[in-house]
Amino acid sequence: MILIGIGANLPHPEHGSALHTCMAALQQLDLDADIDVAEVSRWFESAPVPASDQPWFINGVARLKTPLDAGELLKRLHALEHTFGRARTGSGAVKNAPRVLDLDLLDYDGQTVSGLKKGPVLPHARMAGRAFVLLPLADIAPDWTHPATGESLDHLIKALGPDKVARPLKEGAGAGA
């Protein structure tokens, strides 16, 4: 199973709200001949991590089908972020800054790859402690287990601290974050 996280907390000049930007990014991703967006979770809103006065994020998880390897898929995710106006490197990149689009490769068919090996770190290094990843993930892969630790998704969700807040958007919510 190939899983990505998607999020935003700034509006986009063309697509509008963070929610509409995330939806537009998934549509754009699905136009790639090598990528099929097979399933998308509900949308959640979550407080910025670490806590700050930034707008809340809109987050979701999508399951993809692709013949691309993990490294090539991550390159395409980063290219799409760039197209939407995200700067990942250089003077425009600030860790934990507000962003118009954030795409993360969470899991690629259960592969485990550390930062010492070539390619993306898999599974995503911080996903196990993030409600804004785990709760949407439960929508589309409730039986998922962490490839590196073997912990169930249910166990990881129960282990989240009370400060880890993510709540489903109400149907029809505009989520203008």
Key descriptive features of the protein:
177 residues, alpha+beta, Alpha-Beta Plaits, six-stranded antiparallel beta sheet, 25% helix, 19% strand
List the helices and strands and how they pair.
Blueprint: E1 2-8, H1 18-31, E2 36-40, E3 44-46, E4 57-65, H2 70-83, E5 102-108, H3 131-140, H4 153-158, E6 166-168
Antiparallel strand pairs: 1-4, 1-5, 2-4, 3-4, 3-6
Characterize the structure shown.
This protein has four helices and six strands; from the N terminus they run E-H-E-E-E-H-E-H-H-E. The two termini are 30 Å apart. Helix content is 25%, strand content 19%. The radius of gyration is 15 Å and the shape is globular. The longest helix is centred in the N-terminal third of the chain and has 14 residues, at 18-31. The chain has a single domain, classed as 7,8-Dihydro-6-hydroxymethylpterin-pyrophosphokinase HPPK (Alpha-Beta Plaits, 2-Layer Sandwich).
Structure summary:
The chain is α+β, with helices and mostly antiparallel strands.
Estimated share of beta-strand residues: 15-25%
Q: Measured on Cα atoms, how large is the radius of gyration? A: 15 Å
CATH topology heading:
Alpha-Beta Plaits
CATH class: Alpha Beta
Largest sheet, strands/sense/barrel: 6 strands, antiparallel
Overall pLDDT level: 90
Shape call: globular
Low-confidence stretches: none
**Order of helical and strand elements:** EHEEEHEHHE
The CATH superfamily is known as 7,8-Dihydro-6-hydroxymethylpterin-pyrophosphokinase HPPK
Quaternary structure state of the chains depicted: single chain
Named at the architecture level, the CATH assignment is 2-Layer Sandwich
Instruction: Please state the structural category.
Output: alpha+beta
Give the end-to-end Cα distance, rounded to a whole number of Å: 30 Å
